[in-house]
Specification:
Largest sheet: 6 strands, mixed
Number of helices: 2
Radius of gyration: 35 Å
Strand content: 35-45%
Shape: rod-shaped
Distance between the termini: 81 Å
Helix content: under 10%
Structural class: mainly beta
């Protein structure tokens, strides 16, 4: 009985060494990292983007001494890895979509190109980090993600649960920068993820514009509608629009002023000594001349003020456009009208969401 057991054990040892295999006694070989630029793909309107690429394992050959199985896998697995760009100023979640195929190959010499495999990554905008994460240094817009895909010889058996768990724990301990590999991990692919978000911005091209209303007699102020009406135009240009000419975020423009009639935020007034009394200035959009613009007292929040121009995220916006306006005198206290100048200033504000 003992003799039979010994023979069986020895035979088993020899048979385990007799498994077919392709890997040799060489470290895992890497191709050049693949750059994946998601800067123009993610926005508030399109917060999810999927990218499929093929691994580019280095030019090399392996000799399989029998029919073999090659499996592609990723240490990321079903995890969702959070990428923090610019020291966590911007966050993107990355995950693997789908599974990798397993190949059965015959004995003989094979090139590494036969093991290249498609990899689909899903990128999602997220507000903050958490869980499994990698953070770039301040000012950096790229992150190196190692071992996104690995070609492994599984002819003699794939990784058991405890082997995989042990490797993954060491991977976490290295802050997701190094996956512990062995000789069965023949080829691996690193990637570089770049994220420099391209945000739509608009510019007020004729900032500093002065609108001069004509001189008009005090008596005329109450006899004609919109006395001294003077048209003017606000010119704008918008940059970093998306491919279809749309904006990646909401835009709102409004006017604000610190020179407003206390009882009516649609009236610009001049309270300096020597200025005309009882009369102010109103402004209206040219396409709605009978609806005076309401000014805000804040440069940050429009509140109940009139929107001069607005566009929702994803709306198509001309890269150059104009808004027609008009200004006119308004006698807010006809009984106390006096002659003099009326000077008032307003600020055009552009806010994004």
């Amino acid at each position: 009985m003992n003799r039979f057991f010994l023979i069986f054990l020895v035979a088993g040892l020899f048979s385990s060494n007799g498994y077919a295999r392709c890997y040799g006694e060489t470290p895992t070989q890497y191709g050049n990292p693949i750059l994946i630029d998601i800067s123009n793909e993610l926005s508030a309107k399109n917060p999810v983007f999927e990218k499929t690429f093929y691994t580019q394992f280095p030019a090399a050959s392996v000799n399989c001494n029998g029919n073999s199985k090659i499996e592609a896998y990723s240490p990321i697995g079903n995890k969702k890895l959070r990428l923090g760009f610019d020291k966590g100023a911007r966050w993107v979640e990355m995950s693997i979509v789908g599974s990798f195929p397993e190949q059965s190959i015959p004995a003989g010499t094979h090139s590494s190109g036969e093991f290249n495999t498609p990899v689909t990554l899903r990128f999602t905008l997220v507000p903050r980090g958490g869980g499994d994460q990698v953070v770039a240094e301040e000012g950096q817009d790229t992150l190196n993600i190692n071992d996104v895909a690995i070609a492994r010889d599984t002819t003699s058996g794939g990784m058991g649960f405890f082997e995989w768990l042990g490797k993954f724990l060491r991977y976490v301990g290295s802050f997701f920068t190094y996956w512990p590999k062995d000789f069965q991990d023949m080829f691996a692919q690193n990637i570089i993820v770049k994220y420099t978000p391209r945000m739509t911005t608009c510019t007020f091209n004729n900032a500093g514009l002065m609108v001069n209303l004509p001189k008009i007699g005090v008596a005329q102020l109450t006899k004609i509608p919109q006395p001294g009406y003077t048209p003017f135009t606000l010119n704008f240009s918008c940059n970093n629009l998306l491919a279809n000419g749309s904006t990646d975020r909401a835009i709102d423009m409004f006017l604000s002023s610190n020179n407003l009639l206390p009882s009516d935020n649609s009236v610009l007034m001049d309270s300096t000594p020597g200025s005309a009394k009882g009369v102010g200035i109103k402004v209206a959009k040219r396409d709605t001349p009978n609806a005076p613009v309401v000014f805000s007292t804040s440069t940050l929040n429009r509140g109940s003020a009139t929107s001069i121009f607005s566009a929702a995220a994803g709306a198509v916006v001309n890269s150059n456009f104009s808004v027609g306006m008009g200004a006119y005198y308004f006698p807010y206290n006809p009984a106390q009208l006096t002659s003099g100048e009326v000077r008032a200033t307003a600020t055009l504000n552009i806010v994004y969401q």
